[in-house]
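Lab notebook, page 48
Experiment: co-folding of the full assembly
Goal: obtain a model of how the components sit together before planning crosslinking
Operator: M.T.
Materials (sequences as entered):
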Amino acid sequence: MTAAPDLPAWAALLVAFLVVAGAAITLIGSAGLWRLDSFYARVHAPTLGATLGTGGILVGSMVCFSVLESRFVLHEILIAVFITVTTPITLMLLSRAALYRDRVEENPEVPASAFPETEPPSDPR
Amino acid sequence: MTRLLPHPLLFLALLAMWLLLNQSVSPGHLVLGAIVALVASWTLSVFRMERSGLRRPQAMVQLALRVLVDIFRSNLAVGTIILTGTRGGGRAGFMTIPLDLRSQGGLAMLAIILTATPGTLWMNYDAAKGELLLHVLDLVDEEHWTTLIKQRYERLLMEIFE
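Observation: model returned without errors.
Model output:
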């Protein structure tokens, strides 16, 4: 970080707070992967990193480079947009695969399908 | 107009993305970005997506703010559950919610909102019955979640998309 000394103290403090807070939230989310007990509960944990964790780091980055270059640096917004739009796809894919499997195995903890006749074992496709 | 520019909103969004990526509003980038956005929106019209006119910009802003606040709050709630291991008297579990929202765009938006918010996970949508299967990390009272989703999100999404 050669440019860091140019950052005024208030900005440095703000950026440091945002980045550390974002990283801490992401870490808590990752910790949730082993703290929580079931697969479905675990899927909730990484969204902490994808939302507030990423948000904190991105706002920190926007403040840092806006102050350093004395103009608005806003293209981090695109990272936030793409992460918000793409993470749900992965999470839904994973959780629906788990639901599909649990229903085939007739796991009692999972609600049965509304259409038992179209369930995979009897599905001709 | 509609043949040349099938998705005007998408065109504007892609142009804005191009300008943000290049961090410039010079005429050269405006032209190049417009070409990219135009070709991309033609490509999308091949898929014959359901055209949804987006209405009520005021409702969109209101929804965006609501989602931001809710994401922040549920981050803290789920963070607390992970760190302390205690849930507010709840358990992780499935629940079904009857939805009145039918538009594809609105449902896709609701799926993104619910999945991006820690603590709720979109599991399955039954289009025939209009029922959504949801997994909730801290399930205390199903009634509470049903009213929350229907009042806070669904009403606004129906105003915007339907």
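Interpretation: The two ends of chain A are 58 Å apart (CA to CA).
Next step: discuss with group before ordering constructs.
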